[in-house]
Every structure is written in structure tokens, then in C-alpha cells.
Amino acid sequence: MVTARVWVLKKHFEGFPKTSDFELKKIELPNLKDGELLLESVFLSVDPYMRPYSQRDMKEGDIMIGTQVARVVESKNPAFSVGAFVVAGSGWRTHFISDGKDLHLLPAGWPESLSKSLALGTVGMPGLTAYFGLLEVCKMKPGDTVLVNAAAGAVGSVVGQLAKIGGCKVVGCAGSDDKVAYLKKIGFDEAFNYKTVTSLDEALRKASPDGYDCFFDNVGGEFAYTAISQMKKYGRIAICGAISQYNDSVPQKGPYVQIPMLFKELQMEGFIVSRWNNRREEGLKALLKWVVEGKVKCHEHITEGFENMPMAFIGMLKGENLGKAVVKV
Ligand SMILES: NC(=O)C1=CN([C@@H]2O[C@H](COP(=O)(O)OP(=O)(O)OC[C@H]3O[C@@H](n4cnc5c(N)ncnc54)[C@H](OP(=O)(O)O)[C@@H]3O)[C@@H](O)[C@H]2O)C=CC1
Ligand SMILES: CCCCCCC/C=C/C=O
């Protein structure tokens, strides 16, 4: 008999999540039936979507949603051998039983020397978000100037590097000087700390006096309005996230984007990465190749200990992470 530890949403978040909104519980797992396997989480992801999706899809008492890299510890399913690593979406649990249907083996050719945690970040869902958002929504082309916010995070850091590979000029902003230094190190042409500039409008203008062809928006709110006002004619805006609004109890009011959208004839499109689930393999193969070749650099913010999941999640929402926020069990 295996005992799993799980984190439960004890109380729906009101405003910014608190550690008291979560509860750690134990669950006895039954013995395996034919076709099933027992998995042990090795790395778990904490992601911004957990904040809005918990509100939309969960009830109090549910196990927190989320993905993990897990190791097969026992198998009665011939498709998965003991010791194999998979990406699963089984929520905040140390151990779980699966029938194998929604498990993904790591992409073929994953080098032994590469941490498997990257399957939750650059070579996982956030990397795919950057890849499809840039190619399919921003429709970036060589010579474009691309702006990305939350640029030192899991998605943003890949956006900037892929845009450089694609022959673009890249401007990024992030919430600390260390993050800005990191962006410059990984090849961003311009980067600034949005928390310390005296005027966001001036900082954006200084970074690209001619304006922006593409805006990959992870943040929303007032930042997005200011950036949209500096788009070039026919610019493309990918609404990837709105993290500055996820913790609002009362929806933010304007300023509104219709005037720049109209007179600059802009295109703005929201997207969810799962739209391209049928091209997952293509995206992961490309991302893994760039990582192995050293063309895309990865940074992770690793929190040790399953017991620290809520703290890691809250820390990520506060901006404590450089690169992908991951918990190592
Ligand atoms: N559409 C889709 O399919 C997907 C969308 N997303 C979205 O992409 C965005 C980035 O996600 P991800 O890369 O995983 O997370 P990150 O690794 O970027 O972590 C979140 C970061 O957001 C920044 N942040 C937090 N609050 C604010 C705020 N009020 N204003 C500006 N920045 C803030 C912080 O960085 P800083 O220090 O710079 O403030 C923090 O580090 C999120 O909005 C997320 O919801 C992610 C995956 C898929
Ligand atoms: C259980 C995995 C769900 C992943 C969906 C990610 C979409 C993110 C949207 C905004 O952050």
C-alpha cells in the first residue's frame, strides 16, 4: 500500500492566494489493476493559470490542478516500463495511479545530461506557448521588433530567444534588475525593469523609437494599454496571459484600446496553447533541438520539497522566479 501526499484547495482564493487556502492531506492508494501503473512525482510545475483556472474549474476540497514529471515505480501496463519518465497532468500529488491514457513520454532524443524538469518549462507547455504564440499568433517575421513582458519568466524568456532566432529585434521587461541583466545575457537587444522606470511610455519609446510590430502580452492591464499605444501600423498582438489581473476581486477599468487598435489597424488575438495539441511533437522537437544546440538557454527557479508547493506557487505569482518555477519533490 502506498500513501500519497496531496495538496487540496481548502478555500477559493480571494485576491492574492495565501498558504492558508491550501491543505496537505494523505491518501492511501489501492493496489494496481491490469493496465494501470503507479507513478511518483519527481518535479511539479507551479503556473499562473492555476489562479484563474482554480476559480473556474475547481471546488473547495479538490486536489490542486497541475502537471508533473513522474517516474513509473510499478507497472501493469505493457506500454510503460518501470523507471520510465513521463509528463502527467495529475495535480499536486506525490504519487498517483494512471491507466496510461494521458501520459506523455519525454520527447525522443532527450539527453541524459538534460534535467527532466525542463519538460515542464522550455521543452514543455510554456515553451510551446512561446513557439505557437510567436509563429501562429504574432506571425513574426525577420526584421520585426518584438516586445514581451514577464520576459524573464518561463514563457517570456523563450519568446525572446525564439524571436532572436527568427531574426527579430527583441525588447523585454521584467520586475527586477537581476532579471534585466539575465535578459541581456540571453540576447535580448533591450531590457528594462518596469517597476523602477519613471515612465513606462518613455521606456518603451526609448527601447524602440519606431514602435513595435509584435507584442507578446503576458501581463495585460495598464501595461498592455501603454504598449498597444506604441504599436506600428498593422502590428500584431498575442494575448497570452493577463497576470496583472488574475488576483483582482474587482475587474480593472480602462484605459481602453479601441483608438490605437482602430487607427493603427492592429490585430489582437487571445490564444490557449492547447489549440495546437496536434502539433505538440513538432514544437517539442524544435525546442529540444535549440536547447541541445545551446541556442535557447534555460533557467529554473527550483523550490525543494513537496510541502513547499503553496509557497512556490505564491512566490511565482509575486515574481520571485527567474525562469520556470518548479518544485522538486
Ligand atoms: N495562453 C496560454 O496558453 C498560456 C498562457 N500563459 C500565461 O503566460 C504568462 C506567463 O506565464 P509563465 O511564463 O508560466 O509565468 P512566469 O514564469 O513568467 O511567472 C510569472 C511572472 O509574472 C510576473 N508578474 C506577476 N505579477 C505581475 C504584474 N502585476 N505585472 C507584471 N508582471 C507580473 C512576474 O515577473 P516580474 O518579476 O517580471 O514581475 C512573475 O515572475 C502568464 O500570464 C500565464 O497565464 C502561460 C502558459 C500558457
Ligand atoms: C492542466 C494543464 C493546463 C494547461 C493550460 C495552460 C493554459 C494557460 C492559460 C493561461 O495561463
UniProtKB/TrEMBL annotation:
It catalyses: octanal + NADP(+) = (2E)-octenal + NADPH + H(+); 4-hydroxynonanal + NADP(+) = (E)-4-hydroxynon-2-enal + NADPH + H(+); 20-hydroxy-leukotriene B4 + NADP(+) = 12-oxo-20-hydroxy-leukotriene B4 + NADPH + H(+); 13,14-dihydro-15-oxo-PGF2alpha + NADP(+) = 15-oxoprostaglandin F2alpha + NADPH + H(+). Its main location: cytoplasm. CDD domains: leukotriene_B4_DH_like. InterPro entries: ADH-like_C, ADH_N_2, ER, GroES-like_sf, MDR_fam, NAD(P)-bd_dom_sf, PTGR1. SUPFAM superfamilies: GroES-like (SSF50129), NAD(P)-binding Rossmann-fold domains (SSF51735). GO terms for molecular function: 15-oxoprostaglandin 13-reductase [NAD(P)+] activity; 2-alkenal reductase [NAD(P)H] activity. GO terms for cellular component: cytoplasm. Belongs to the NADP-dependent oxidoreductase L4BD family. This is Prostaglandin reductase 1. It comes from Chaetura pelagica. The lineage of its organism: Eukaryota, Metazoa, Chordata, Craniata, Vertebrata.
